[in-house]
Structure formats: C-alpha cells, structure tokens
Amino acid sequence: MIDSFSVWRRFDYTLFTATLVLVVFGILMIGSATQGAIDDDIISRVPDQINFAIIGFIVTIVMATIDYRLLGGLSPWLYAGMVLMLIMVEFFGVEGAGGAKRWLNIGIRIQPSEIGKIILIITLSQYVAQRYLELGKLSNVFRTMLHVAIPAALIFAQPDLGTTIVFLVIWAVIIWSAGLRLRHIALFMFALAIILPIIFPLLEPYQRARVETFINPDLDPDAAYNINQARISIGSGGLLGKGYAVGPQNTGRFLRVRHTDFIFSVIAHEFGMVGGVAVLAMFALILARILKGAREASDPLGSMICYGVAAMIFFQTTVSIGMNLNLMPVTGLTLPFVSSGGTSLLFTMVGVGLVESVIVRRRRIII
C-alpha cells in the first residue's frame, strides 16, 4: 500500500492531460458534426458526451487510488459479471439503428461489450500473471483462449464483429507480452488461416458487404458512398482545413455517421493535415506513457494490464482512422476519446485510470 501523497506525487499528469485534451477536442468535434440536427438522439450527443466525460475523469482519479491488485483478486466475480451482462443482452438487449442488439437499458443505455473490454484486460492479465512461468505449456495457452472465447462468441452473436476482433487483439497482445513461444504463434496463425474462411459465411449480410465493398467498391456503390465522402472530406481539408464547424462536407451533411465512425474525416476536413497529425501525435503520446508504465510496473499483472489497455486504444485508433482513409473495411469501431459514445468514452477512461493505478505503484527507478 502507498500513502495518498505518494499517489499524487507519482501520478502521470502527462497521460492525464493528454487524455483531457483529446476528450475536450472530441466534444468540440461532436458539436461540429451534429450542428443543425433535428433528431433528438443526435441533438443529445454533446450533453451526453460531456456528462460521461465528467464522470470519466472522476473515475480515472478514483481508479488511480485503488490498488489494481485488489481488482485482480476479484477476477472470478468480474468475469462472471461480464458474461452475465453479455447473456442479458441476448435476451433483454435494445436494438440500435442498424438492428444490432448491443445495449442494455437500465435507466440509461449501456453497452456491456465496452465494459467487457476492461474486465477482460483485468481478468486475463490476472489469469496469465498467475501462470507467468508456465505459458510454455500449450494447454495453458488454450485455457487463455477459452477465457476470451466465451465473451467474444457472445459479442459476435450480437452481432458486433469489430468489438469481437478487439477482444482477440487484447488476448494476443497480453499473451505475447507474457512471453508466448514462437512455435505457438506459428500454430495460431495457421489455425487462423483455416478458421477465417469458415467464419466469413457466418457474418451478417451487411458485415460481408463491408468486406466485399472494401475489396471491390464497384460491387455496391451505395455502400461505398460514405468511404468516398470520407476520402473527399480528408483530401479537401488540405494543409490547414476549412475551419471549425464550416467545412462543407460536414455542414452539407454529405458525410453520414460523422459524429461516430467518421469523426476523423471531419477533423481532417476542418483542421486539415495539421489537425489530423496533431490528433495522431496526441494518441502517440498517450500510448508512449502507457507503455512506459508497462515497462516500469512492479509486477507482471501491472505490466500486462498496461499492455492490454495500450492494445485496445492502439487497435481501435488504427482501425477507425484506417477505415476513414479506406485502408481498412468499415467496422463501426469508435475513435477512442473522440467519437460520440458514452459507454465507450467512460470505460476507455477507466482503462486510463487502471494504468494510472499501475504507474503510481511502479517500482522505484534508481538512476
């Protein structure tokens, strides 16, 4: 245990400030992307994001004061709670605009899969930390696969392919950081090559269409419309952009779902290449601080928690920006801290709070 003075003396203010900058900037961009909206759900996006941001920053600070090892000790209960929530989505879930059943309504709408990302990071890190010296056994690696396969299968059934992949990426990075053997990596890559052709026909028609349209846009011009508009938005932004809240691609509503999936296109359109690079630099700073926390962690559990949070943020950022640039298929993943989405924002900030908990309890570095 450490005293309260040590918590704030060792707290990573750079990480916290960078997160604050991105969240505030995201709220401003959501305001620009939703200006002139007439739909009640769209109109409420900015105040909802502000409310979740305030709660998120409070939770980040609170999480830093809680010893992450205590949360690791609660892993069985956290894991059971995650699976229960995901099962409840199947029976009591609320459908979104796209027809996917991903939310629970408990007075406010929450997305259990977003909560599940953080729970998976804690529980899988705890599971691996307890077997840190035994991962050379293939049987232990398969048990970690089962650990992630149960919630991932429930999320895949919602259907939510993007978040399912996030779960698998978190698993892969945590296992790799724990010292996965090269022969095991080769085995899993071979298994993945066999499984993918089996999984693809099981996808929903609109999910298969996204992949097929990415490969050949001429197959479905309507599905390719948003990608084309995103590229036009980014390209027309030039070096310095069209200006905040005045970009014609945004104000003219040529770009759909611009407050969520295509928020980066709005950023590049209104602030140009300079704005886009500045956002990327802020993400790079956040990831660098998290990885520094992983290197200096006092135990394997803390290190793997940091690696798991970094994997989640890095992968979602890469995919979100990549689909805006037509470098990846559209998956519906949000741009962390920036895109509209209360549960996503809140629990990404919980992840930052977990990292802060590891950092303030890091081992002393003697220079």
Beta-strand residue fraction: under 5%
Number of separate helices: 16
Low-pLDDT stretches are: none
Spatial order of the strands in the main sheet?
A: 1-2-3
> Could you spell the SSE succession in H and E letters?
HHHHHHEEEHHHHHHHHHH
Mean pLDDT: 88
Helix content bin: over 70%
Number of beta-strand segments:
3
Descriptive key words:
mainly alpha, 16 helices, 3-stranded antiparallel β-sheet, single chain
Task: Describe the protein in words.
- The chain has 367 residues and is an all-alpha fold.
- It has one domain.
- It contains 16 helices and three strands.
- A three-stranded antiparallel beta sheet has the order 1-2-3.
- Strand 2 and strand 3 form a beta hairpin.
- Helix 2 (13-33) packs antiparallel against helix 16, helix 4 runs parallel beside helix 16 (342-360) and helix 7 (112-130) runs parallel beside helix 16.
- The longest helix has 34 residues, at 263-296.
- It starts with a helix and ends in a 7-residue tail after the last helix.
- The relative contact order is 0.16.
Short characterization:
By secondary structure, the protein is mostly helical. Helix content is 71%, strand content 2%. The protein has helices at residues 4-10, 13-33, 40-43, 45-65, 68-73, 75-92, 112-130, 138-156, 161-177, 182-199, 205-215, 221-236, 248-251, 263-296, 300-324, 342-360; strands at residues 94-95, 101-105, 109-110.
Set out the fold topology.
Blueprint: H1 4-10, H2 13-33, H3 40-43, H4 45-65, H5 68-73, H6 75-92, E1 94-95, E2 101-105, E3 109-110, H7 112-130, H8 138-156, H9 161-177, H10 182-199, H11 205-215, H12 221-236, H13 248-251, H14 263-296, H15 300-324, H16 342-360
Antiparallel strand pairs: 1-2, 2-3
Helix pairs in contact: 2-4, 2-14, 2-16, 4-16, 6-7, 6-8, 7-8, 7-9, 7-15, 7-16, 8-9, 9-15, 12-14, 14-15, 14-16, 15-16
